[in-house]
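S1.2 Input.
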Amino acid sequence: MDCERAEKLIQPYVQDKMPENEMEDFIHHVRNCPACYDELETYFIIRQAARYLDDDEKQSYNLKGLLAKDMREKERRIQRKKHRNIFFSVLIFVLTILLILFTLHYLDFVEIPWLKGLF
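S1.3 Output.
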């Protein structure tokens, strides 16, 4: 991802409206590009400060720390989603193989000794 694209994605990121398919590349770029990180940090701090002023419960905020925490949480969410997708892909693959084996055994094309007693 280049700086121009990253700068266009800063507002959607800050507003939690960024498409997830671009989130990982964006975070990777921002972590490695000081100029883009500074730009993101500026917008993020402004948004968080506005939320703080609107919030009835006045709490102490480490605004710079909140950005780092937000980026870590979004990275974790992306990783969980990837792991979940891999898990379900493997599960579907295994179930498909089992379905094929059961079907072939049922149609007497393949003899599977451990299935003999079941059918």
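S1.4 Remarks. Residues 3-87 form one domain.
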